[in-house]
Amino acid sequence: MDATEIGLWGVPLAILGGAIRVSTPFIFVSLGEAITERSGRINLGLEGTLVFGAMTAYAVAVMTNSPWLGLLAAAAAGLCFGLFHGWICKFPKVNDIAIGIALMLFGSGLAFFFGKPFIKPKAPNLPAIPFGAWSDIPQVQAALDVNVLFLIGAALSLVLWWAFRNTRAGLIVRVVGDSSDAARAMGLNPNTVRLLATGVGGALAGIGGAYLSLYYPGSWTERISSGQGLMAVALVIFARWNPLGCFAAALLFGGAGALGPALQSVGVTQGYYLFYAAPYILTLIIMIATSSPTRSLAGAPGELSITK
Amino acid sequence: MTDRFMLNRRQLLKTSAAGAALGLASASFPISRAFAAAATVGFIYVGPKDDYGYNQAHAEGAASLKGIEGISVVEEENVPETVDVQKTMESMINLDGASLIFPTSFGYFDPHMLAMCAKFPDVQFRHCGGMWNKDKHPMNAGSYFGYIGMGQYLNGVVAGHTSKSKKLGFVAAKPIPQVLLNINSFLLGARSVDPTITCQVIFTGEWSLAVKEAEATNALVDQGADVITCHVDSPKVVVETAAGRGAFVCGYHANQSPLAPEKYLTGAEWNWAKVYKMFVDDLVAGAPLPNFTRGGLADGFVKMSPLGPAVGEAARKQFDATLAEMMKGGFSVIKGPLKSNKGAVVATEGQAFVETAIELESMDYLVEGVVGSTA
């Protein structure tokens, strides 16, 4: 087989590569949102946090020439956005969804405003680990160039899944999310827990943004996110608030998103708009297949304003 | 407490009367201004104006007007191709007193710009890329465009010489005539070097989708394409991704060579400064503005990026010769015998469409050798 001609093998390879490349922002944002929602709040503003994180990471990386400092700055900026959301929402009669939408617009607008001078310069990228080095097919090598953030995201979803079940901190977040009254009876302050949970969620979303601007596609433009933050928030419900589910759903979205370009590249060119809808059709099918008329959403935190 | 925010009938009537008066006053404002020495020109962009691409090319053109005495420029970026653009045009007319507006994105034309033309008959509108037709469209509307397909043909010439795999890649946004002409020109340029070359096209479906463009570029390189070009609003992502994978790139819209100095071959660029200056000179002189403006390399509407370091001697020679041929005028990219990739005859033996041929602006096919589909 000619090394440059891989033909139809390109499709599964592109789905695999796409799942690894495209999914990372989804993983971080949905894990962040999972933590926040498990504590009983919804932060819809993560799209804004993602865009602002992307801008901050890129700007700091340009100025300091270090992508890692950029990543840290993005996490810090995300933390601030999350804490801000959590702080406002502790006041009575404040609607967390409305604040989230406001912060989404605010975050994007602020990122566009500060990001203008950083569209032209080039920032150093985050490193990737060449897991494909065993293969001498360049396509396989390219697909298996895995960024460290993807691995961190995978590990984090495992840790969170374990921690929600087996640690005191996980129990605290869950009890606050399921019943404020029970939490107060245990001597916990729900507002403090939610503030911290929203802050951590924001920091993770900021890291997701850093991946976008510092690795894939690897540049800062105002259209960098195209709604990925919002989709990741929806993924959390799709994943039933389970961190492992979030990881799987993110992979599914990444892989399905790569399907359209991959099919066109091997000559399946009819109806590409339909293939681009693949992630959404898949979501619908799974949602319908797993829904039940006899029980409410399994795993939904009781304090969420959408389930109350 | 809610009473304070409730309007009674009298207040409501008063407020709306004041509003109507304001509306009348501002509507009459541009009429008195239209052909005065001082004029305001409005530019509307669909994306950010420093995107290394389509919008940047227009914004550079707009910026070149700022030194002209008596002309003030108002701009708005990131305006979607929806009713939003109508609001932007209205506010440019009513609040800024714009007498000439350039809505630069393809989707602004019909119905948005046409609606505004009917509403503000004294304001001039010139749209980039649209097909103005004097039987169908009002006289205060118009369109301008450049024959950038010629530039893509030159890109193809260089790509044809550079490619080793004889497979080229094209990341395209939407299958509209201008995009199809660019894809066809790119391939035909390459086939003028070697008639066995093919070009794989991937449509992303949107003008600007960073992640999907990166995925499309990766998919093309995976399939063995070794020279990539594109027609999306911001080629930055395509250029960087392709160069990162080791493929060569041809630019589009603006000069992207700073993004990939080693891998950048050449590029087809807009030179809007020249076009906008032409319109504004007419406006200042009080002359009627042309309704249908087109121009190519010879008219200075389009230019090529300087050839990059990877371009070989044979490629350079054919590039220069073809460019010289084009500068004489009358060069045709689409000439018979030529079939579409579905087998239909698009040009018979001896039939040739020069760059000015109006048929090219309603192109709906991909030529033989392009792997892809328009729907």
Structure, explained:
The complex is a heterodimer of chains A (308) and B (375). Chain A is an all-alpha fold. Chain A has one domain: Orthogonal Bundle (ABC transporter involved in vitamin B12 uptake, BtuC), CATH 1.10.3470. Chain A has helices at 10-38, 46-64, 67-89, 96-115, 138-143, 148-166, 168-178, 180-185, 190-214, 228-238, 243-265, 272-276, 278-290; strands at 128-130, 145-147. A two-stranded antiparallel sheet of chain A has the order 1-2. The radius of gyration of chain A is 20 Å and the shape is globular. With 375 residues, chain B is α/β, with parallel strands linked by helices. Chain B folds into two domains: 37-146, 3-Layer(aba) Sandwich (Rossmann fold), CATH 3.40.50; 149-269 and 307-371, Response regulator (Rossmann fold, 3-Layer(aba) Sandwich). Chain B contains ten helices and 18 strands. A seven-stranded mixed β-sheet of chain B has the order 13-11-10-9-7-8-18, with helices on both faces. Chain B has a four-stranded parallel β-sheet with strand order 2-1-3-4, with helices on both faces. In chain B, strands 5-6-12 form a three-stranded parallel β-sheet, with no helix packed on it. The longest helix of chain B is centred in the N-terminal third of the chain and has 25 residues, at 9-33. Mean pLDDT of chain B is 88; it is low at 1-7 and 15-37. Chains A and B meet through helix 1, helix 5, helix 11 and helix 12 of A and strand 8, helix 7 and helix 8 of B. Chain B: This is Simple sugar transport system substrate-binding protein. Chain B: InterPro entries: ABC-Purine-Binding, PnrA-like, TAT_signal. Chain B: Residues 1-36 form the signal peptide. Chain B: Keywords: Signal, Sugar transport, Transport. Chain B: Residues 40-307 form the ABC transporter substrate-binding protein PnrA-like domain. Chain A: The chain crosses the membrane at residues 6-32, 44-62, 68-88, 97-119, 139-164, 193-212, 232-259, 271-289.
